[in-house]
Design goal:
With 317 residues, this protein is mainly alpha-helical. The protein starts with a helix and ends with a helix.
Length: 317
């Protein structure tokens, strides 16, 4: 009877110790998770260095940068929206295979948020159509090479994502833009000089063509030679323009035809309201206005704006 009681006490003691160890482990894991989540939300910058390796401090991949920079919030900012979309397009063209599995999943999640925003706002429809078409074309090429393990994850998962892209394309094609109920002054009510001045702010020739299809008067303004001339001079150099001269029937330069010929031969000038910034002093990458631990005397003078292509080039070791 005594032995049985002693064995029972030892068993209770053993169970009690196991419980205490398990409880301490859960508490430690909980604190670590909270610390990681808090650290992730506070740190909105990353350290990058050209030519870094895994053995050197500061190693960072494109996938890691894509995960840690706040792109989900950036797409909600109209100044950063076009920048993020252009970055998504460049990744879709040539960098999908360099992303980790988590980064690829994050990429698709951000893309879904972009599509939902466009469906709600009914803005930038053509821009997102082109992005989805670029991504779908790239995935078709990569899926056909599945035997070479060029994509991370199961092939069925990528087929499902391609089906999602087709569904998003269909949703964008079915958008019916509603006319606003506003009954005040419209664009066509403005003086012609103001209409022309506003049209000169458009940086995409396709927007001018679309605007000219709204009304006969706008059609006349959208064919203005000076308008297309300024557009060509904004996007292209004089040397590029001289190589693609086109004369009209009247012997004058046809700036409109020249513009559409030039965009097929040369990249257009990119314009963004806000960009990612790279600190040349401490090699820290962040959005403009984000504080980072810079040791320079004048941190403002050390920041350089990066285009989406420059951002990707940082991670080509």
């Amino acid at each position: 009877s005594f032995c049985k009681k002693e064995d029972h006490n030892e068993e209770n003691l053993f169970n009690s110790l196991n419980y205490d160890v398990a409880a301490k482990k859960r508490k430690k894991d909980l604190l670590n998770n909270k610390a990681k989540i808090q650290y992730f939300h506070q740190e909105k910058w990353i350290y990058v260095h050209k030519g870094s390796t895994k053995e050197r401090h500061g190693y960072c991949t494109l996938g890691e940068a894509f995960n840690r920079l706040d792109f989900s919030s950036a797409i909600l900012d109209s100044r950063r929206f076009n920048y993020v979309v252009r970055l998504l397009e460049l990744i879709a063209k040539s960098q999908l295979t360099s992303l980790s599995g988590i980064a690829q999943k994050n990429y698709m999640n951000i893309l879904e948020k972009v599509v939902q925003k466009v469906l709600e706002d009914q803005q930038n429809i053509r821009l997102i159509r082109e992005l989805l078409q670029t991504l779908y074309t790239s995935l078709c090429t990569l899926v056909q090479r599945v035997g070479k393990s060029v994509l991370v994850g199961n092939i069925n998962m990528w087929v499902h994502r391609m089906e999602a892209i087709l569904h998003w394309q269909q949703q964008l094609n079915n958008i019916q833009i509603t006319r606003p109920a506003f009954k005040g002054t419209t664009f066509t009510d403005l003086p012609l000089c103001l209409q022309l001045n506003i049209m000169q702010r458009l940086s995409d020739g396709r927007d001018l063509v679309s605007l000219g299809q709204v009304a006969p008067d706008l059609q006349v303004l959208s064919e203005d030679r000076l308008l297309w001339k300024k557009l060509c001079q904004y996007h292209f150099t004089d040397r590029q323009i001289r190589k693609r001269l086109i004369l009209s029937d009247k012997g004058q330069l046809d700036w409109k035809k020249m513009y559409f010929k030039l965009i097929r031969c040369y990249p257009r000038k990119e314009q963004y309201g806000d960009t990612l910034q790279l600190c040349r002093h401490c090699h820290i990458l962040s959005w403009k206005g984000t504080d980072h631990p810079c040791t320079a005397n004048n941190p403002e003078t050390c920041s350089t704006s990066l285009s989406p292509q420059d951002f990707i080039n940082l991670f080509r070791f």
